[in-house]
Design brief:
- About 85% of the residues lie in helices and about 0% in strands.
- It starts with a helix and ends with a helix.
- The protein is mainly α.
- It has one domain.
């Protein structure tokens, strides 16, 4: 009986089901390998201290915008999972 009650409590409480790291991983699962690669490149350049304008020039406008779109896609998925 206690096992059943524990499972019900987890289903009722999303925070018990998903911690922050799990939510992040689930949100990233919605991305393609290409999108993940673009985000990785973008983040590496950002971490290296380049400005967004410089990054856009280095990545190319299309790739830069695709990276930003992929980040927004993952953010929306994370928000959906939190709801």
């Amino acid at each position: 009986m206690k096992g059943l009650e524990a499972r019900i409590a987890k289903l009722e409480n999303r925070e018990a089901r998903y911690d922050e790291g799990t939510l992040d991983m689930l949100a990233l699962d919605c991305l393609t390998d290409t999108e993940l690669g673009l985000i990785q490149e973008f983040k590496s350049l950002l971490d290296a201290g380049f400005s967004r304008e410089k990054i856009a020039g280095m990545m190319g406008e299309d790739s830069y915008h695709a990276a930003v779109d992929a980040i927004e896609k993952a953010d929306l998925e994370r928000k959906r999972l939190e709801a």
